[in-house]
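Quarterly update from the structural biology core.
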Amino acid sequence: MSMGKLANCSRCDAVFVQAVRDICPKCYKEVEQEYEACAQFLRKRENRGSNIHQVSEATGVSVKQITKFIKEGRISVAGNPNLGYPCERCGFLIRAGNICESCLKGLKHEITQQLEVEQRLDEFQRADLAQAAYRRKQNSDE
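Predicted structure, tokenized:
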């Protein structure tokens, strides 16, 4: 049986023996309490229409931590129609993934444009190399 390694808690930076989690036992207990507070809040029928900011305000749990719970699948957005988390690019509330459809579309467009620019540069460089080779051939034939 192997022992854990020494690590710094990613949440409070305390040194602890890491076995499974990247947070210390104290922080793990706090995270579990935060999860339980969110889950209890959302179990009440009158709170199911709450958005992430309302859940955060009512429970004292950060939006970042609630987002983590949602992404981990611990808090379901299925029964909570207004519950989402911010897009990592623009902040628009989303229910799945890391970025919204609009940002995804924009990124795809930027990638397509970049690929087109690179393709044109490659074609230009190939034409330039071919022209240089032709000039060298012409000079060697003279």
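The two ends are 79 Å apart (CA to CA).
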